[in-house]
Amino acid sequence: MTAAGDGGAARKRLRWRCRRGTKELDLLLERFLATGLEGLDSQGQAAFERLLSQRDHDLQAWLIAGQLPTDGELRWIVERIRAAELPPPS
Fold it and tell me: CA of 74: how far to CAs of 46, 47, 86, in Å?
């Protein structure tokens, strides 16, 4: 079930799953949860939830080191999270 499907309880579970033990990952994932998740359809929300089930060192490689997952769905959500972190063009 996605965050939109059962309200606050799902969001609390997702927030807990965003806590990865490194400040950088925690900030990236929690910010996206707060500002980007609502803009996703149910498939996008499912992709975010699937991303959270990946290993921490993979998440660091994808979200911090700039690598991309080979899985297309994970690549898509990683690119969305990265795009949300970039400052708007001036």
Answer: 10, 6, 19
- Phi, psi for 88 (deg, rounded to 5): -65, 150
Alpha helical stretches, state H, 36-85: 42-52, 56-63, 72-85
Closest CA to 14 of 55, 49, 62: 49
d(CA 76, CA 48): 10
pTM of structure: 0.83
Reported as half-sphere exposure (CB side, CA atoms, 13 A), residue 58 has a value of 13
Task: Name the strand (E) or helix (H) holding 8.
Answer: helix 8-18
Q: Where are the domains of the chain?
A: 41-90
pLDDT string in tens for the chain (90-residue length) = 444 456 688 889 999 999 998 999 999 999 999 998 989 999 999 999 999 999 999 999 999 999 999 999 999 999 999 998 876 666
